[in-house]
Prior knowledge:
single chain; 2 helices; alpha+beta; disordered N terminus; metal-binding; about 180 residues; about 20% helix; Creatine Amidinohydrolase; hydrolase
Amino acid sequence: MLQQSKVSMQCYEVGINKTATVETSANRLQEGYHGDTSKTFLCGNVSDSMKRLVKVTEECLQKGIAVCKDGALFRKIGKRISEHAEKFGYGVVDRFVGHGVGTVFHSEPVIYHHRNDKSGCMVEGQTFTIEPILTLGSIECVTWEDNWTTLTADGSPAAQFEHTILITRTGAEILTKY
């Protein structure tokens, strides 16, 4: 879908916009288990501010993964992502969350990517997604009538990266490598 002006895909949509980014999301069912991943790509003539947004969003995903291990609090993910995003003046969309994956595609736990005070600890063997969305402007979102396409309310660009991870005793294994 061709987008107009400076509108960016936020979640679960593949599109090209005039700011020259493409956000893809893919999921796969293999042997009864789901996986989920997404990545923002740069295409064509991209401004330095967009390049920085995409780079920092991917860094936020990695920083969120880095705090994961058996016994760690889920809220550490949002804290770490928010701290890094805020260093660059970016907003973290709070409307979309990561989620558990396994034999059920969207399940517990709910993973918040912004600062929060939710309870809950990671347990060895859990699988879930971390999928932060950062924006250059408003973190508020508008969803089109198709109940699928979602944009920032002010039309500002956004970027998203996502991995499905497995919690281990000492860390996290990325199950969806690009």
